[in-house]
Write a structure and sequence with these properties.
The complex is a heterodimer of chains A (about 160) and B (about 30).
Chain A: H1 4-39, H2 43-73, H3 77-81, H4 88-115, H5 123-156
Helix pairs in contact in A: 1-2, 1-5, 2-4, 4-5
Chain B: H1 8-29
The chains are: A mainly alpha (about 160), B mainly alpha (about 30).
């Protein structure tokens, strides 16, 4: 049983790398590549074959990261989310990660389903969905910077 | 005014600014 926290931490980091790695892929690579691909008519390959697979691992890695993080907090879950004594830093990281998870499943995934044609949407709805998903993804990229700082700060950086 | 989230550098700079703001909030919460 004493191995469990270490295993939760290991899973939390593995899934977190996949989640944030794919978030950075979307923002630093795919978004820029899409513009070039649209210009030479090869964008369909990305939106048909790459984006749906990347989104599958992205949104489920987010869930696994959060669940493993919650398991790692264990009895300190409440203290972290209420910024209890000694848990202020990890609490801030946990809140930022939670907001990011909600963003993934509500704003990003729900709108990507329209963009990728998984659910029916008019051209106007797709354009709106594109903007909302883009901004939600950028917000998550922005939030990932303090989120990772506070995750690391709990045990490695004095405040 | 252009939305800073439209550019990658704008997003990164906002993330760094937010980190500093939250640092002081957490410091205050921790009684520092």
């Amino acid at each position: 049983m004493e191995m469990l926290p270490g295993i939760y931490r290991w899973i939390h980091i593995l899934a977190g790398i996949m989640w944030i790695g794919l978030l950075y892929y979307f923002n630093f690579v795919q978004g820029q590549a899409m513009k070039a691909a649209q210009a030479d008519g090869t964008a369909a390959g990305i939106s048909k074959h790459i984006a749906p697979r990347a989104l599958l691992f992205f949104r489920w890695a987010a869930v696994v990261t959060w669940v493993a993080g919650a398991a790692l907090l264990g009895a300190n879950f409440g203290a972290a989310f209420t910024f209890g004594g000694g848990y202020e830093k990890i609490g801030m990281g946990a809140w930022l990660g939670t907001i990011m998870l909600i963003n993934v499943w509500t704003l990003i995934w729900q709108n990507q389903k329209k963009i990728l044609g998984i659910v029916q949407a008019s051209d106007e709805e797709k354009n709106k969905a594109r903007r909302v998903a883009f901004l939600a993804s950028r917000v998550n990229t922005m939030l990932s910077i303090p989120m990772l700082y506070f995750m690391v700060a709990q045990t490695h950086i004095a405040i | 005014m252009k939305n800073p989230l439209d550019s990658l550098w704008g997003t990164i700079i906002l993330g760094l600014i937010l980190t500093v703001i939250l640092y002081y909030i957490v410091k205050a919460l921790a009684g520092g």
